[in-house]
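Q: Structure tokens for this one, please.
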Amino acid sequence: MAGREPFRAHRGRVAPLRRNHVDTDQIIPKQFLKRIERTGFGPFLFYDWRRTPDGELDPSFVLNQAKYAGATVLVAGPNFGCGSSREHAAWSLGDAGFRVVIAPSFADIFRLNAIGNGLLPVVLPEAAVTTILDRAEGGDGYAVEIDLERLDVRDTQGLTEPFSMDAASRQRLLEGKDEIDLILAHEPDIAAFERRTHL
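A: Here is the predicted structure, written as tokens:
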């Protein structure tokens, strides 16, 4: 979606998902992939984990707990977004209100899909991720600030953790650009090429 909001810095409440190898079929199960829009996937995020076998909301699941309501930063274990390449995983996280996912590592395709949809994947060392998970589970309203310009994550309890991101991905997020925007930036060159090849 062209013209998305640039990402500079974001402060948000943390939802701690203390699970490793969270795959895309759990992020957005396959039965919900029939929609043709990019929106409306949020209610189905982690659907099988959010509900009991009889279909009721499971009060033990983190996103069903009141103290994490309105969370915009999801923190999870390593290899987040593994499994199939479905872009719907990034759509569902964004549609549910998440702006940032923090983990020790991400599956490559999920990472690219997240960036392409304005969702910031932040890689931090496992020790820092564990600290954030502990603090989020230990108190109500725990929040972190993620600064893409300064490339660090901070909280009010003394955490300051730098992270890295390749320059091209970082610039796309800072400018709020998607793949179409990048192509359109070369429109004069494309037009010149077409004129040359159609003579």
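A few notes: The radius of gyration is 18 Å. The longest strand covers residues 9-17.
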